[in-house]
Amino acid sequence: MRTAIAALAAGGLVATAITLSAPSSSQPRPGNDRETLRPVSSFNNIGDSGARSVALFTEAGKVLTHARCVNCHPRGDRPLQTDAMRLHQPVVVRGADGHGVPTLQCSTCHHGANFDPARVPGNPEWHLAPISMAWQGKTLGEICQQIKDPARNGGKDLAGIVEHSTHDTLVGWGWNPGAGRTPAPGTQAEFGALMKAWADSGAHCPG
Length: 207
Known about the structure:
The protein is built from seven helices and four strands, in the order αααββββαααα. The protein has helices spanning 2-10, 49-64, 67-70, 140-148, 158-167, 169-173, 188-200, and strands at 80-81, 86-87, 100-101, 104-105. It is globular. The termini are far apart.
């Protein structure tokens, strides 16, 4: 299978992003403001809890709107690829459960871990987010409302959202995306801390 995947990559069928190799998710990365996350403590000077909540979610939104997340939260039935968020090549579709159609499931090419020689990303839980959680083209305020809505988020309450953000391994892949892909800003621990502080301060959404 890996030989076949490598052949596809050599033929240009497996699209990749550019720039950075993936660091450990536990280690912060130097970089500009879009590559890092401010710590929760830096928002303590905002006295109004609603405004603080919005500010926290806006900072976490640097992850939510990053290509590593949006590529798996597309508005259509095809996943996206690369930092440019291009349609997946070869052509694959969502299927009934987000794992592809029976004749071409995500697991056909995407296995339990990244396969860097062919630039094929991998995770045991590889799949698309449900269409009810499509973020592509949405404002941060709209994404916030989706995340909070149990009817759209898989029945999660705020504690479940924080748990998913902090510990889900597929979410965590965004910080370990394999060679040739730009990781999400900050670390998963920093992202989870921002989401928890957002929830604890009232889970307010940007306007």
